[in-house]
Amino acid sequence: MKQTVSGVFWIFFYLLVVLSPLIIIMVRPTPTGRSFWVEFSVGLGFVGLLQMAMQFLLIARYKRLTAPYGIDLILRYHRQIALIALLLIIAHPIILVIDNPALMPLLNPIGGTWASRTGNWAVYLLVILTVLSLFRKQLNIGYEIWRVTHAVLAIAAVVSAHLHVTLAGSYVNTLWKELTLVGITAAAMSFFIYLRLIKPTLQQRTPYRLAGITPERGNTWVLQLEADGHPGLTFKPGQFAWLKFGKSPFTVNENPFSFCSGPVSSGSVSFGVKELGDFTRSMHDLPIGTRAYLDGPHGSFSIDMVPAPGYVFIAGGVGITPFISMLQTMANRGDPRPVLLFYGEKNLDTAAFREDLDKLEQQLSLNVVYVLDSPPEDWQGETGYITAKVLSHHLPREGFTREYFICGPNPMTDAVEDALQTLGVSLEHIHSERFDLV
How many CB atoms lie within 10 A of CB 354? Predict the structure, then answer.
């Protein structure tokens, strides 16, 4: 109930902030003699600008904001709503020119007035930012480089947009309106400062050290960290954290990884890391004792947040990691609830944590169904992908409703969500976590 109330509050807060410019620009004094299309375009521009400013809040990893929805959902919304905001901002000058073609010269980024130049700069910066974000992998831009350019472009765009509105002067012609605009821009910058400066400062007080690296199947490594001079953090099984290595937490080189250990109070935590990129490919070469910093825990993908009489877990590849945390926790607690786990992998040799799952099947009411893409010749189990047909072969028919958890690559997650709904599973009982947080 508390999470629901919090979720509703944040939705209303978000809408209030985003739509506030429409109220402000209607308060007198207002410009006179302007056509409907001019006012309409200005309204779109203001709403788009506020949407862009609010993106700094969405990515700041405020736990009170992300808790009701899950940070993966927040970041997906961030990507989608940013595109809508960009379209609104682009529509602003286009509508002005259509309404009055004589304004066409003002679209020149180095011509016109300073008011038009700064407005053009904001639009072009946002377009570049969006293109780099959508096609980062195709352009072969490293994640760390992209993060720096993304932040610089976003800040420059918001500042340019602020200057444009101020220099245009039509709707900030009183002190209180100008102060409102300054406050909005300052708030956006404060979210960025919180994420990149305040959080790392706090993380310096709670460092960790690398205590062990254990190889797993499928080019996966288990990293064990020990709290250094503090009791460690408390997390729920299935959650994740952003992980940094090095002498200082002030670095852009960080990535999100799921805990694969249960939430114990010893100050020791473990992460399952698969070699998928530059950062993860060299992680197993880190010396024991290397300093580490955690930003977490994050996520609502946890059995502790979704109580049920039983569960169905569906994992693809390294998506098994949060389920190992959940199952280990259930074993530690002596939890008798039934769990059915579908595990999609290339073959048994690449199935990470296979030996752990064998042990957990003996300790829990757990049934593991491997779905192999390239099975051995004598394989008698499921093959191919986790489809509705595969699921229907094993889903239990019982007198209670289980909760369904899915974690894996985006195509797999989308396909399994559709398959479950085809089989009659209500969307409210399906919980997904996707890898594409970055």
Answer: 18
